[in-house]
Amino acid sequence: MLYRAMRPFLFGLDPELAHRLSLASLDTLHRLGLSRLAAGAAPKLPVRAMGLEFPNPVGLAPGLDKNGEHIDALASLGFGFLEIGAVTPRPQAGNARPRLFRLPQAEAIINRMGFNNIGVDRVVENVRRSGYRGILGVNIGKNSDTPVERAAEDYLLCLRKVYPVASFVTANVSSPNTRDLRSLQGEEELGALLGVLLHERNTLAKKEGRNVPLAVKIAPDLDDEAIESIADLLLAHRVDAVIATNTTTSRQGVTTLPHGREQGGLSGAPLRAMSTVVIAKLSRALKGRLPIIGVGGIASAADAREKLDAGATLVQLYTALLYRGPELVGEIVRGLAASEKK
To answer: Which of 3-7, 60-64, 189-193, 243-247 has the lowest mean pLDDT?
Structure first.
């Protein structure tokens, strides 16, 4: 209710300013012990995936807390897990502003942020300072000025840095906002990257005495052949999970809306059906041998159930939180729990 009262004011502000104010307000509520009251209760709905025990299947997608600066407050909303990032080896400002656009009529967002973050070292410091002891994923990428043929060096550096503090690590090869990044989804390029990342992960597992799962995040704009090729590579390299999907470069259904033709990745309600189709195709190709984390347009328990029925094991939210508020997390978990009792 509080967020709904604040939303007209927030939506009157620049989207990035509103984003910062919303997270600062959540931090304040958390310090006062009120954030859980604002969010509502999320029941236990345990799920096991990637060798990890999740208290419920509803997670936070990366991008909302790129730098791990609001982990404790976000955890209080009832998420079963959090994912922060994307982080890069060196700090970078990202793309030029404006780079974040609301499409309220479609409950959607277009962003071309460009992996803006404070760099992996400072993000790791933020994680260490947090009091959160739940499941935390860290999304990793390459710096924008790193040539794509040297991308593996950036991913390897980030993997080594975040390994001690992460519950799982996601290799983001699907953001549309870093030049040439999506080329890493090609069969040859992805195979080479997975080979070096999994080798390094296994080396780190022996050194650290714990295995941190590695996931790969893919785009929704892939054809059937590419999806099947990626599925084969994930299985061949024994990746631990696949996240489907990132934002889309499609503008179907939004081209007539204000900002609907802006460059960047589209998220929110228009992505829901597209991402579900990719999940279903992946599920058929993987034959249950790899967990899928479903992302894209989830704004209700019914949307989450659609992803799970299509083959996902876990789901993640982001854009709908900006339109519906923090109570959405508990609403979805409660709805999923109720549907399982029927």
So the answer is: 3-7
CA distance 7 to 41: 22
Of the residues 167, 174, 175, 267, only one is catalytic, namely 175
CA angle 309, 314, 319 (to 5 degrees): 100
Quote the number of domains for the chain. 1
Question: What pTM was computed for the model?
Answer: 0.97
> In what order do the strands lie in the sheet containing 100-103?
100-103, 108-111, 265-268
Beta-strand pair 52-54/47-49: antiparallel
- Domain residue limits at 293: 2-341
- Cα separation, 337 vs 45, whole angstroms: 7
Q: Which tens digit of pLDDT belongs to each residue from 222-246? A: 999 999 999 999 999 999 999 999 9
Q: Is 311 within 8 Å of 293 (Cβ atoms)?
A: no
Q: Is 35 a catalytic residue?
A: no
CA–CA dist 43, 329 (Å, integer) = 11
CA nearest 293: which of 177, 106, 139?
Answer: 139
| C-alpha span between 170 and 85 (Å, rounded) | 9
Q: CATH number of the domain that 75 lies in?
A: 3.20.20.70
